[in-house]
Structure formats: structure tokens, C-alpha cells
């Protein structure tokens, strides 16, 4: 009986425990998502979840990220499959902090990258449908918390320059057209609502350079830190 009572109490604790106010930071490659997250490292009550790029770069010594760009027909499916798993782990990660800030989400993988890969023939229809089945299954069986989306809005020209300057070796073959298409997909999703948006979207001007963008970041603070301020 004691054990039963304990189990019931634990179950009601996990039901009642409030999920953190969860924010997805979205935007094109090079839009400044990492810098944005770094800005919020000054607040102790915020849990920062950076994108699992390092895991994509080293899965037991295999660089899936590099393989995806070098040989997309062969590796894009495997890569997006692994992105889904690593993102899901971040989505369901528990934190005691009242605010959780996530770099990207399963949604941008689904509505931007995977859509782009299907349209350009990198993903075959069968592969695409397998990924859709995963997304739908996850959606039905997990509570993916999302209270706000921050969209770091840029122009493709600006992010192309930034990406070249950053010089990530794996991205050396990424074309301007690729960034332009990804930009359109982000716009269709986050501005025009072509795909499901799990929360309201706060749009920031992320074309500004590092000197000017601080003010944009500060502008978002009250929305993001809502449960703490
Ligand atoms: N990527 C991908 N498919 C996904 C997510 C990311 O192919 N579902 C790729 C695109 C980039 C790299 O992974 O080559 C990282 O892209 P992000 O835009 O997520 O991260 P950045 O580091 O470029 O963001 P920022 O410069 O805004 O900090």
C-alpha cells in the first residue's frame, strides 16, 4: 500500500510539475542563433540548449554532417534521421529552470530542411514519408512544449556572406541558391503560416551587425523572460 501511495504521489507530482516556458530560436543558417543564445547565458534561470551539431559531427567517429553535404543522395536521409533523434532528446530534456531556450527544433528540420531536400530530389519520396511518420508518431506520443518562437529574420545575401566568413569546412559547398530556398521556407512557415506553428512568432531583425543587434536581443528579453521578470 505504501508503495502504491508513493507511486500515485510521484505520478501526480510529474503531472503537476510545470513545464518550463519554452522558446525555439529559429532562422536561416548564419542568422545568429548561437550568438542569440549566448546573450541569454547571463541569466541564471534560463536553460540553454544549443544545437547538437557536435553530435552530428561525431557519431562514434563518423561525421554525418560532413557526409550529408559531400554525398547528399546517400547520406541526407541518415542525417535527418539522426537530427530527429537528437532534437527529440533536447525537446524532452527536463530542467528545473523556469525558462528553456532551444536552438532550432524538430519543426524547422521538418518544414525547412526536409522540405528543401525533397524538392531538390535529395530525399526520395519513400525516405520523406518515413521521416513524416516519425514526426507524426512523436507528435502523438510526446508533449513537445513550445510557448514562443523567436524568428531571427535575415536576407539570404547577408547570411551567405556570414557563412563564407565563418568558414565551417562542411558548409564550403553550400550555394547562395540553397540559402535563398531555405529563407523562403522559413518565411513560408514563420511569416505566412504555410506550416503548423506551435506558438506565436516574435520576429527580430537579424540582418543587423553585432553592434546593432544587441538592441534587438534586448527587445526580446521581456517576452522570453516572462516567467522570471
Ligand atoms: N542542418 C541541416 N538540417 C537540419 C538542421 C541543420 O542540414 N535539420 C544543417 C544546416 C547547417 C548546419 O546544419 O549547415 C547548422 O545550421 P543551423 O542554421 O541550424 O545553425 P548555424 O550554426 O548555422 O546557426 P547560426 O549561425 O544562426 O548560429
Describe the structure.
This protein is an alpha/beta fold. It has a single domain (26-213), classed as 3-Layer(aba) Sandwich (Rossmann fold). The chain is 55% helix and 12% strand. A five-stranded parallel β-sheet has the order 2-3-1-4-5. Helix 5 runs antiparallel to helix 6. The longest helix is centred in the middle third of the chain and has 21 residues, at 72-92. Residues 27, 29-34, 51, 53, 83, 104, 109, 113, 171 line the site of 2'-deoxycytidine-5'-triphosphate (DCP).
Q: Short description, anyone?
A:
The protein is an alpha/beta fold.
Kindly estimate the percentage of residues that lie in beta strands according to DSSP. Answer: 5-15%
CATH topology: Rossmann fold
N-to-C SSE string, H for helix and E for strand: HEHEHHHEHHEHHEH
- What are the distinct ligands in this entry? 2'-deoxycytidine-5'-triphosphate
Assembly state (oligomeric): single chain
- What's the N-to-C terminus distance? 43 Å
CATH architecture field: 3-Layer(aba) Sandwich
What is the global morphology?
globular
Highest CATH level, the class: Alpha Beta
Tell me roughly what share of residues is in helical segments: 55-70%
Number of domains: 1
Amino acid at each position: 500500500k505504501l508503495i502504491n501511495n508513493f507511486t500515485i504521489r510521484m505520478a501526480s507530482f510529474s503531472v503537476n510539475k510545470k513545464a518550463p516556458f519554452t522558446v525555439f530560436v529559429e532562422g536561416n543558417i548564419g542568422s545568429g542563433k548561437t550568438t542569440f543564445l549566448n546573450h541569454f547565458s547571463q541569466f541564471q534561470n534560463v536553460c540553454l540548449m544549443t544545437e547538437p551539431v557536435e553530435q552530428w559531427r561525431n557519431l562514434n567517429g563518423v561525421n554525418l554532417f560532413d557526409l550529408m553535404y559531400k554525398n547528399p543522395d546517400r547520406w541526407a536521409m541518415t542525417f535527418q534521421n539522426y537530427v530527429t533523434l537528437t532534437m527529440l532528446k533536447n525537446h524532452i530534456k527536463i530542467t528545473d529552470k523556469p525558462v528553456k531556450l532551444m536552438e532550432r527544433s524538430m519543426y524547422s528540420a521538418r518544414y525547412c530542411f526536409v522540405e528543401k531536400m525533397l524538392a531538390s530530389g535529395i530525399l526520395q519520396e519513400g525516405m520523406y514519408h518515413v521521416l513524416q511518420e516519425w514526426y507524426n508518431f512523436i507528435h502523438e506520443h510526446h508533449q513537445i512544449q513550445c510557448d514562443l518562437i523567436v524568428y531571427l529574420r535575415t536576407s539570404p545575401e547577408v547570411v551567405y556572406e556570414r557563412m563564407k566568413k565563418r568558414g565551417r569546412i562542411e558548409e564550403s559547398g553550400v550555394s547562395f541558391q540553397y540559402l535563398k530556398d531555405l529563407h523562403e521556407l522559413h518565411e513560408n512557415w514563420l511569416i505566412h503560416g504555410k506550416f503548423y506553428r506551435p506558438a506565436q512568432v516574435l520576429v527580430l531583425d537579424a540582418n543587423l551587425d553585432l553592434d546593432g543587434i544587441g538592441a534587438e536581443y534586448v527587445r526580446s528579453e521581456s517576452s522570453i523572460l516572462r516567467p522570471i521578470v
